[in-house]
Amino acid sequence: MSERAPRTILHVDLDAFFAAIEQRDRSELRGKPVAVGMGGANDRGVVSAASYEARTFGVHSAMPIRTARRLCPDCIFVPVDGAKYQRVSREVMAILRRFTPLVEPISIDEAFLDVTASRALFGDGEAIARQIKAAVRGELELTASVGVAATKLVAKIGSDLRKPDGLVVVPPGTEAAFLAPLPISRLWGVGPSTATALRDFGVATIGDLANLDRSALVRRFGKHGASLVDRAHGVDADPVDDPDGAKSVGHEHTFDEDTADPEVLERTLLAMSEGVSGRLRHAGLKAGTVTVKIRDSGFNTVTRQRGLPEPTDLTDPIWRTALDLARPEMRGKRIRLLGVTASGFGVREQLGLFEAGDERQRRVVEAADEVRERFGTRAITRARLLRTGIPAPFERDPGTAVERRGEHAVAEDPEARRRKRRPAPANPAAPPPAGDADAVDDAFDD
Ligand code: DCP
Ligand code: MG
Known about the structure:
- With 446 residues, this protein is of the alpha+beta class.
- Among the domains are: 176-232, 5' to 3' exonuclease, C-terminal subdomain (DNA polymerase, domain 1); 243-441, DNA polymerase, Y-family, little finger domain (Dna Ligase, domain 1), CATH 3.30.1490.100.
- Helices cover 35% and strands 20% of the residues.
- The protein has helices at residues 17-25, 52-55, 65-71, 82-97, 119-122, 125-140, 152-161, 175-179, 192-199, 206-210, 214-221, 223-232, 262-283, 315-330, 359-375, and strands at residues 9-14, 34-37, 47-50, 76-78, 103-107, 110-114, 144-149, 167-169, 248-259, 285-296, 301-312, 335-343, 347-348, 438-441.
- Strands 9, 10, 11, 12, 13 and 14 form a six-stranded antiparallel sheet that branches. A five-stranded mixed sheet has the order 5-6-1-7-8. It has a three-stranded mixed sheet with strand order 3-2-4.
- Helix 11 packs across helix 12 and helix 13 (262-283) packs antiparallel against helix 14.
- The longest helix is centred in the middle third of the chain and has 22 residues, at 262-283.
């Protein structure tokens, strides 16, 4: 196959995932407005997932429970059962892997598949999409929406377009026409501030953007402008990542509201470090390098990286290093996104995860892992994380388009496995600070 032959990529995203699972398991919830969220006495809780019935009242993910109650007094609020959703997620991913080994899970309920080589066996992209939908419905009693296209970008937009239970096929060559009528907010990399700026250019739809003079956009937005035009034409060379090629484990979190509160920022780094170390242990890996990513409210993004004195799979060294790297970058800024990634896996150990003498800590950590397995990642929080009401960043990275997901987790962790899209070029504008941190420019890619 020549490099230019169109690929067949599917984006599969389950509908109202947490809420649909609860409706499946509790028949009294079917057909009713359901919001999965913390509820109870915790007034700071937010909605994790809303059933489509609840959405007609305006209830959606990340909305405070209080607001949801006001909008939808008849809504039934159900507590989050993280362990169950993780289990179902693994079942979903297992179904997807029947059709190709090239499955790139990007959150707990969505994945990209490259089925280019599977077509001989299972039929074209549309046929494979139908088989996947049928298997998810038949075996898991859930519905999935699927986009089929030659690029990840277009497949993802397609899967979102006719939710729930949607199937959108965009044949190769028709990408630009497919995208043209859609609002620019559908495009990765167009957040509210870019959308506002584009309005000055008279851009409302992706088609408007595609028709703009490329050099004018580059003058206004820098290299981000050029990639915006490419994307408006549906151009996206990003491959579906080979699951065996995972080279790092990471989490990113986009705050629902930008924050400068050091407590919140540090807690978030802690939560992400816990998630990362848990995944390392689960995979039997130790990391020698920690990378943090910080994006401020002006969409300036920096990453800082540091080698560890010795490879680790424990939270503390990862968190301490992440804090050290991130603190100077966060000072005085409102932060939009944080990420923590562990990489540099020199050691793959089956049993001996801990050095001799670490026995006590080993028992503590293993007990925590056990609870995590039984009750889901959310169950494990340190004192600093308790009663904060901040969403566990590792459950889901809401609002984070794949474009902006710089990190990746190992293959065993479908809901969060992320990989670097492309090597980040050196940033001439921000030389590395004193010490051993390297700075790389992640570009204005939101
Ligand atoms: N999630 C969460 N907090 C958020 C967003 C999502 O906990 N802010 C969880 C609950 C969702 C699941 O992740 O069920 C999947 O997220 P999606 O964005 O795919 O949303 P849904 O699957 O709920 O709905 P849709 O039908 O729009 O995909
Ligand atoms: Mg979904």
